[in-house]
C-alpha cells in the first residue's frame, strides 16, 4: 500500500520573534507580511565595501524599536541591488543579502532587503517568499513560536 506522508508546516502568528545567527542578531520582532514579496530588515546606516573581490555591505540596526541605545553592527555579502516598492508606492534601491533565519523549530536561508524602518513599528518584515513552504500563518495569533 502506497501511503503519502504529510508533514505539517508549523503555524506562525502575524508577529513572531526571529533569530538571524549569521548577523549575530539574537532576537528581533518581525511582522509576518504575506503582502510583501521580500523580507526587509531595519538598517539606519548602510555602507558598501569590497572584500576579496566581492561586494559586501556593513550596516547598523536598532533591534529594539523602544531602545535606540542598542546598536548592532552587521556585515554580509551583497547578493543584489534592487528597486523595491514599499506599501506606500515609493520606490527605493536597496541592498539585498541572504542569511540564515531561525523561527521556532525551523532554520532556513532567505533574502532580506536593507532599509531604514525607524518610523515603523517593526524592525523587520518577513515576506511571503521567505515563509513559502515553511509555515502556515494564523493572522489572529501572535508569537505562536514562543518569545525569545
From TrEMBL:
It comes from the Bacteria. It holds the Pfam family Zn_protease. Residues 11-147 form the Retropepsin-like aspartic endopeptidase domain. InterPro entries: Asp_endopeptidase (IPR008503), Peptidase_aspartic_dom_sf (IPR021109). Transmembrane segments: none annotated. This is Uncharacterized conserved protein. It comes from Nitrosomonas cryotolerans ATCC 49181.
Amino acid at each position: 500500500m502506497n501511503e503519502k506522508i504529510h508533514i505539517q508546516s508549523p503555524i506562525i502568528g502575524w508577529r513572531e520573534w526571529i533569530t538571524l545567527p549569521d548577523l549575530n542578531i539574537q532576537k528581533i520582532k518581525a511582522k509576518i507580511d504575506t503582502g510583501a514579496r521580500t523580507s526587509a530588515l531595519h538598517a539606519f546606516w548602510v555602507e558598501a565595501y569590497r572584500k576579496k573581490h566581492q561586494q559586501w555591505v556593513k550596516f547598523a540596526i536598532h533591534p529594539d524599536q523602544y531602545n535606540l541605545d542598542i546598536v548592532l553592527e552587521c556585515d554580509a555579502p551583497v547578493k543584489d541591488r534592487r528597486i523595491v516598492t514599499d506599501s506606500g508606492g515609493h520606490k527605493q534601491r536597496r541592498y539585498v543579502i541572504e542569511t540564515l533565519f531561525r523561527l521556532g523549530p525551523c532554520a532556513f536561508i532567505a533574502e532580506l532587503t536593507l532599509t531604514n524602518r525607524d518610523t515603523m513599528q517593526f524592525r523587520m518584515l518577513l515576506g511571503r517568499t521567505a515563509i513559502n513552504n515553511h509555515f502556515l500563518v494564523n493572522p489572529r495569533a501572535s508569537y505562536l513560536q514562543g518569545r525569545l
